Give the backbone structure.
Amino acid sequence: MRGLRPLLATAVAGAVIFALPAIASAGDLTLEVSGDCPGQLTLRWSGAEPNRPMAIIFALALGSYRVSNYPCSGTQLGLGESGLRLITVVGSRRSGSGSVSGQAQSDHCGGYLQLVVANGSGTPCQTSNVVEIPE
């Protein structure tokens, strides 16, 4: 989707400017989702590269979308192009773990989420597992 590419690149690149140096090493990035859809959802993650901007990406289907813009050029997602969009950008925190909550609309139910952590080097970025939003 043409609209996601500049939006994702701008949001993550803008957040990189404010990133702090890493304090701990990152392991495997895992994502979990809990809650009701429609309604309140909570995303929890662990194993992110510490103190980096992290994009929460939504899509309607699984797939293999490849990011073509800096700072995550070449990063392959587990999401397809259908409905692909940036939800928000959050920080991964010192521990590399955290959570965020928000309201999911009915058209999000059954969709998929994945995290992408910007590394700032222009090489593939760290990605999480893909989770399905409960219906």
User: Anything to note?
Assistant: DSSP finds one helix and eight strands in the chain. Confidence is low (pLDDT under 50) at residues 1-26. The beta strands are 30-35, 39-46, 53-59, 85-91, 98-104, 112-117, 126-127, 131-132. The longest strand covers residues 39-46.
